[in-house]
Amino acid sequence: MKGSNPTELIQAICSVQSGETYITKTFDSRVIASLRDIVVRRKAAAAVILGIRERQIVRLLMRDKTNAEIAIAIGVSEEAVENHLTVLIQKLQARNRLEAAIAAQMYRAQRPRRMLDS
After folding, report:
1. Are 6 and 54 in a shared domain?
2. Looking at the structure, do residues 39 and 68 belong to the same domain, yes or no?
């Protein structure tokens, strides 16, 4: 309300006096944009389907394993793990392995069968 003009301030005061809630147009726009982002993310999450190796890597990532440990555990080279991680990070729209692990946990809660269960 700091930068509001006098007309908007009067509308806000009248709304509050009559027991209503007043929301500025700027705040309203931000809330609507935020809700759209949430809807888009949920639709993207619903479309995420991970391959067998990606699911294996996610499970090990969530156990805080290094690339070398993951490579040994699933029987592939460390380079292969890095390649799978790159694809995984893109699919989960993450910026790094930590975000990928967090996103995978969130998506797992939403879509247990399609994404992470084998």
Report:
1. no
2. no
pTM: predicted TM-score of the whole model, two decimal places: 0.54
Residues 2-26: tens digit of each pLDDT: 677 888 888 888 888 988 877 777 7
State the residue for tokens 């993951």: 70
> How many CB atoms within 10 Å of residue 104?
25
Q: Give the separation between CA 24 and CA 41, rounded to whole angstroms.
A: 26
Q: Which residue has the tokens 């700027």?
A: 26
Q: Virtual CA dihedral for 85, 91, 93, 99, nearest 10 degrees?
A: -40
Q: Which amino acid is at 39?
A: V
Structural domain range at position 60? 50-118
Element (DSSP H or E) covering residue 43 = helix 25-47
Q: Using CA atoms, how far apart are residues 19 and 109, in angstroms rounded to an integer? A: 39
Residue in 29, 115, 14, 1 with CA at minimum distance from that of residue 103: 115
Looking at the fold, whether 100 and 73 belong to one and the same domain comes out as: yes
* 33 and 64 part of one domain: no
